[in-house]
Amino acid sequence: MRIIPLSEGSFTIDGTKQFVPFNKTSDELNDRPSGSLLVEIQPFVVITSEDVLLLDTGLGFEQEGRPQLFKNLMDAGINPGEITKVLMSHLHKDHAGGVSHKNPVTGKFELSFPQAQYYVQQKELDYAFEKGLPSYIPEELECLRTAPQVQLLDGDGVIGGYIQYQLVGGHCPFHQVFRIVDGGTTVFFGGDNAPQLQQMKSKFAAKYDYDGKLAMELRQQWWKTGQENHWKFLFYHDVKTPVG
Prior knowledge:
Blueprint: E1 2-5, E2 10-13, E3 20-21, E4 37-40, E5 44-47, E6 52-55, E7 62-63, E8 66-67, H1 68-75, E9 85-87, H2 93-96, E10 100-102, E11 109-111, E12 117-121, H3 122-131, H4 138-141, H5 143-146, E13 150-153, E14 157-159, E15 163-167, E16 176-182, E17 185-189, H6 197-201, H7 212-229, E18 232-234
Parallel strand pairs: 6-9, 9-12, 12-13, 17-18
Antiparallel strand pairs: 1-5, 2-3, 2-4, 5-6, 7-8, 10-11, 14-15, 15-16, 16-17
């Protein structure tokens, strides 16, 4: 199994829920508004014996006239057309911005990976349209409702015989997590319920979570089980340690 972090850079975010680029060598966190959080944005590619998996899709920004996610994939030696499955932990804009991109001819949003199967919780998709801005961008998610290659999930289950998904809530009401077991290796992706290594090691209930106490308890459970069973953890928002 091969794991490739696809960092889109470091950002600060405050109560406005706007992601502002942050240069770790020249910028000062104290210069940002009080309460600003410093986070990395990094989807992951996991190459297994069966698939080329993409775990969450980043902010959806463009670079040099094309999605930054596409550039990052190609820089890692992966053609975007090679992605076979897109696994979405949830649909907040910093995780789902690259789900789709705007067709320059039609002006409509279409799936960024039309050859891949997308896996999204049905209730999370419904909630995204109910809740809307600023956490969700419904316009960019509309194609998830109608595209035939989108698999809308209901609760827990298994994909392809080796990818376990579990609806857990915590960070948002219908957040899901993934455990990928292939070739004797287990990879765990907890999205924003397990965003950084330090949060796994300490009892930390985040005020920005829908249910901070639940998210904290889940992290403690996963960390204990993962330590005992030698899981690899993927940390979407860790500025130093993408894989732990």
